Every structure is written in C-alpha cells, then in structure tokens.
Amino acid sequence: MQYHRKATRRLHDDQRLQLYNKILPSDFLHYGFFDDVATLPEGMSLSSITTAQARYAELLIDLSGNPADPVLDVGCGMGGLSRMLHDRGFAPTALTPDKTQAAYVGKMQPNTPVLRCKFEKMPAADHMHQFGTVFTAESLQYLKLDQALPILADVLKPGGKWVVCDYFLNHRTTDKTCHNWELFQERLTQTGWKITYERDITANVLPTLAFLHMLATRFGLPLLNFTTLRLRRKQPGLHHLLQRMFDIIEGVASDNVGLIDPSVFAHDRRYMMLVMERA
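-> structure tokens emitted (279 positions)
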C-alpha cells in the first residue's frame, strides 16, 4: 500500500537538497563545469566537484548584463550563485519555493532579498522591468513555460538578458522530467524571444555524473546488497517478512543509478548554456 501510494513532490521542503548541501558544502546544487572533459572519476574528489561548481557559476556571471542592474536568481538553491553575484558587485534577489533554502539564504546572506514562492506565482507587477538579468540555472526544467515566459518578459528591463543553464531532452517523448530542446526553441520563437548565445556543455558536466555513477556502482549498490545478504543470514525470519520491500528498494536504487549513467545522459539529453533576449 505504501509503495503504490500517490507520488508527491515536496517542492517546499526538500530533504534531499539538505542532504546534497551537507555533502557538497559549496552552497551549489548543480552539476558543475569541468574545463577538462577527459577528467576520470577515479582521480576526482568532492573538492574537484566544488571547484567545477564555482567555475559553472563564473561562466554564468560572465554572460550577465550591466552589474549596475539588479539580477534575479530563480531557483536559487542554497544561494551559491547569489553569493558570487554579490561578490562580483551585483545586487541579486534570490527566489525559491523551498522554506529550508529560503531560511538558509536569508541567514547566510542577510543583504540578499529572498522571494519564497514559485516563479509562476511571483508578483510580477511588484517587479515590473526591475531586473537586468534573470538566471535559471538548473531550474528551468521545473518551470511551466506558458506561465513563466510572460513573467520573464515583465520582470526583465528592456534589453535585459535571460541566462539559462539546464539540460533538455534530445527526443520528443512523454518524459516530463525536463523540456524538449526542439519544442523549447519553437516556444521561444512563438513568444518573441531569440537566443543570442548558445553553448552545448554536455561534455563538461559528464565528469560529475561519472563520479556519482562510480560511487553508486562501486559502493552504494554493493553495500545495499551486502546489508540484505547479511540480514538474511543473521535474521532469516525478518528477511523473509521484508523480502518484498528489499526487492522494491533494490529496483528503485538500480533505476536511479541508471539515470546518472553518463552515457545514457549524453544519449537522451543535452546540457545547454544560453542567453535569451526579447526579439
């Protein structure tokens, strides 16, 4: 009954994001950017990933508009990009629907205003033509374009920039985890946007996926299997009662490991760094 319950997405209090923040103490929750795309997972460390995450943010900031104009960090996560924007002389506003993220950013960056809401629920009239740059770094995938695109047009200053860094589906499927690349481009054209900068950085994010995949296949799954076998030997009765649950857990774990397989990711998705402006 528990397994077949209706799935819910805890957008306002995501414990997984809290876990990621403790594992990667850089205040970033994205894949990072490796200049050396041949970096092997065996030679990587958590420090390598935090360095790549800072590099990712630097590239985004380099694409932004006039530093004198306020900027909006949509889906700010734990505030890493907002912090770097502030350090570079920008005046960021952070936006997140997650109460843990909002509280953390508010505590660590008291000079950064925080809007706690979904972007689609943002009071655009209160921020009309306020921002010179709007960032959606690994947050575009969560936005409903029919609602988000008009708000973007409203809150950006004339001549402002919308900077995107996110992954897209390569093929038209029923997969709803992110936007399809071709459909996204069509929607931009239909709604009066043009892409003024485009860079495919798929190869630059794959080292992070390769590292995570290595940890999962060499440590995570073997440890799960070891725990199950040990319980079967030590507590056969309890193991028998919980066998169905263990099978479900192993199946879910295997599916999630498949999602971070870098070869599968590169086949199904492309990771794009973009700048859009009003046509």
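The longest helix spans residues 202-234.
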